[in-house]
Every structure is written in structure tokens, then in C-alpha cells.
């Protein structure tokens, strides 16, 4: 189907005057009026465009299965979700696993463990393992994005569960994918990272297993999570590639592995929006843009 030149002109004009996404917002509002909601179309929309902040949490809840496609049931289902949240929390308090001083993200972790029947029966809870640290990192970022604790818990739980189930076998291969695309974009930078011994030591766990939580400010992070929640973990590779490309001059001037790793662990936060925008463009360039929206 041929593209509408008038629509392209309008979109270009909107973007030029600072109203990028005006038509996309209208398209999303039309999709959200469907009953039942078409989850596949919502995922395609999220893959193509950034979600407007006013609809983001609602769309995430639908995409993650927290809310069903039938809009008529949303209030009822969220009522059940709130009851379940209260019941789990009260159970943890009754067995004295959590108390008033327990950090909220740890409360979420213990709730998640209780539901998954992974909570230690001993009086002394084991310190968080690696998977728990991934959960806690994602929880801390989600807590900054979502105000309501019930919504926050369900989003963390379903995000982590979906990510592990859907992409758990793929994530170990993402470093190789990063090497492939970085070689295509800047082979000289790749060679430098290899020569310093940095390529195998890059912060892959926070980048890939924690989906950049703790690495990017939430305003930038949520745009990456739009893509992950709607079905792509490949976006994580392109965010990593774009971080390396954006700081190429800095990295090329470093010869010591420790310096490179320290810089990436304490990455400047001021231009992360631009990095994410470029990463999404790079992702679309190499992987294509979903077209079957309607």
C-alpha cells in the first residue's frame, strides 16, 4: 500500500514544530477504544512509536496480561489484583518476613518469592542472589515510573516473568549480537574494545538481564521498556551499541580496561534521551519496522 504523501507532510510538520506523535497519539486512542482490545495491534504500535506517557501504564498492563482484552472487566480484574496484593502482603507480615522498615522493593521481592513458592522457610532469609538482584534493580526503576504500589508490584512481577520466560534463552547470545552490529557500525571501535580486553567485560548483566535499569534515568528507560514489553529484547543490543558509539571518542582515548568499565558504570546521564532515540532508529534500520498495525 502506497504511503500517503499528505500524511507524511503533516507528520514532518508536526515533528518540526515540536508536536511529534500527534497523529500517533490519535491512532493509539482509536486502538484503546476497541473492545476487546487487540493486544497484537497494541504491541505493533509500541514497536513503531513511543507510548504517550498518559497511556503508558495502561498499555503495559494490557500487554503484560495484568488486564484482560475486554475493557468491561478492567475494574473488576484490578479489584481482584488489589485483593491478592493485600493478601500476600498480610501473609508476609504474619510470618514476619516484612515489617514497617522493610524497603518497598524488598517487599515486592518477598511477595514475588512467596507467590512463586521460592521463599525460604528458615527464620533467616538468604541474601538476594543474582536473579534477585536483577529483580530488585528492575523494581527500583519501576517504582520511579509507577506511583501506585499495587500497579507497581504487578508490573514488576509480570515484566520479570515475561522477560525470563520469553527471552531467558536469548539473553546469553546478546553480547555476540552486540559485537555483530558494532562491527557493522564502527569496526575501529570494536577492534579497540577487543584490544583492551573490554568486549567480554562490558556490563552485560545490567544492560541485558536488568534491561538498563540502574543505567538509564527512568525518563529514557521507559521508552526502551516500551519495546521490551511489547516483544523485543533486541532493542537492548542497540541501546548498548549506541552508548558505545555516543562515547566513542572518550572510549578510544582509554587504554586501560578498568577505566573503560568505570566510565560505563558511571555513564553521564544528561544525553540519554538522544542515545535512546538513536538506538531506536538503529534498531529499525537493522531489524525493520513492524507495519501490520491495522
TrEMBL record:
PANTHER family: TBC1 DOMAIN FAMILY MEMBER 7. One of its GO terms (molecular function) is GTPase activator activity. The lineage of its organism: Eukaryota, Metazoa, Chordata, Craniata, Vertebrata. Its main location: cytoplasm. Keywords: Cytoplasm, Cytoplasmic vesicle, GTPase activation, Lysosome, Membrane. Residues 50-232 form the Rab-GAP TBC domain. GO terms for biological process: negative regulation of TOR signaling. The keyword Cytoplasm applies. It comes from Paramormyrops kingsleyae. One of its GO terms (cellular component) is cytoplasmic vesicle. The keyword Cytoplasm applies. Non-catalytic component of the TSC-TBC complex, a multiprotein complex that acts as a negative regulator of the canonical mTORC1 complex, an evolutionarily conserved central nutrient sensor that stimulates anabolic reactions and macromolecule biosynthesis to promote cellular biomass generation and growth. The TSC-TBC complex acts as a GTPase-activating protein (GAP) for the small GTPase RHEB, a direct activator of the protein kinase activity of mTORC1. It is found in: Cytoplasm, Cytosol; Cytoplasmic vesicle; Lysosome membrane. This is TBC1 domain family member 7.
Amino acid at each position: 500500500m502506497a504511503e500517503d504523501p499528505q500524511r507524511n507532510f503533516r507528520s514532518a510538520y508536526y515533528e518540526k514544530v515540536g508536536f511529534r506523535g500527534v497523529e500517533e497519539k490519535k491512532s493509539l486512542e482509536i486502538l484503546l477504544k476497541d473492545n476487546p482490545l487487540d493486544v497484537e495491534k497494541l504491541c505493533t504500535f509500541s514497536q513503531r512509536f513511543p507510548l504517550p506517557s498518559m497511556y503508558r501504564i495502561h498499555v503495559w498492563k494490557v500487554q503484560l496480561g495484568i488486564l484482560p482484552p475486554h475493557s468491561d472487566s478492567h475494574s473488576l480484574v484490578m479489584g481482584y489484583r488489589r485483593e491478592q496484593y493485600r493478601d500476600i502482603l498480610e501473609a508476609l507480615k504474619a510470618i514476619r518476613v516484612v515489617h514497617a522498615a522493610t524497603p518497598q522493593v524488598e517487599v515486592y521481592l518477598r511477595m514475588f518469592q512467596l507467590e512463586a513458592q521460592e521463599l525460604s522457610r528458615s527464620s533467616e532469609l538468604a541474601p538476594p542472589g543474582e536473579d534477585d538482584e536483577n529483580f530488585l534493580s528492575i523494581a527500583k526503576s519501576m517504582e520511579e515510573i509507577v506511583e501506585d504500589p499495587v500497579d507497581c508490584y504487578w508490573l514488576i512481577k509480570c515484566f520479570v516473568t515475561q522477560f525470563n520466560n520469553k527471552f531467558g534463552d536469548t539473553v546469553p547470545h546478546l553480547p555476540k549480537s552486540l559485537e555483530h552490529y558494532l562491527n557493522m557500525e564502527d569496526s575501529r571501535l570494536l577492534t579497540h574494545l577487543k584490544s583492551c580486553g573490554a568486549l567480554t567485560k562490558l556490563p552485560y548483566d545490567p544492560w541485558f538481564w536488568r534491561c538498563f535499569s540502574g543505567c538509564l534515568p527512568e525518563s529514557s528507560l521507559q521508552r526502551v521498556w516500551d519495546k521490551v514489553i511489547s516483544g523485543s529484547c533486541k532493542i537492548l543490543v542497540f541501546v548498548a551499541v549506541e552508548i558505545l558509539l555516543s562515547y566513542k571518542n572518550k572510549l578510544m582515548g582509554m587504554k586501560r580496561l578498568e577505566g573503560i568499565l568505570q566510565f560505563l558504570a558511571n555513564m553521564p546521564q544528561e544525553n540519554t534521551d538522544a542515545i535512546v532515540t538513536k538506538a531506536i532508529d538503529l534498531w529499525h534500520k537493522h531489524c525493520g519496522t513492524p507495519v501490520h498495525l491495522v
